[in-house]
Specification:
Length: 87
């Protein structure tokens, strides 16, 4: 249940919801059906706050996706700035 909440928090960009889900036992290294670990999903959203929460709550910073790429690879590919979107 908490894993699904963490996934939804990443999708919606809710830092508070992500913190709550992780504090209640969500796995910070959960791999989504897409093959992305949560940290990759947060990186793909270009959201440094979500990435930071995941890292502080124990996410593996060198976790690899189904292609063997880390979140750092994805960040470089997407020109990650960490800026939160106002949309």
């Amino acid at each position: 249940m908490q894993d699904a909440r963490a996934e939804e928090a990443i999708r919606s960009g809710s830092v508070q919801q992500l913190v709550a889900a992780l504090a209640e036992g969500a796995n910070p290294d959960r791999v989504l059906e897409s093959g992305y670990p949560l940290i990759h999903a947060a990186t793909d959203k270009n959201d440094a706050l979500l990435v930071g929460v995941l890292l502080r709550m124990g996410a593996n910073p060198i976790a690899q996706d189904a292609l063997g790429d880390t979140a750092l690879h994805l960040a470089a590919e997407k020109n990650f700035t960490g800026a939160r979107s106002s949309c």
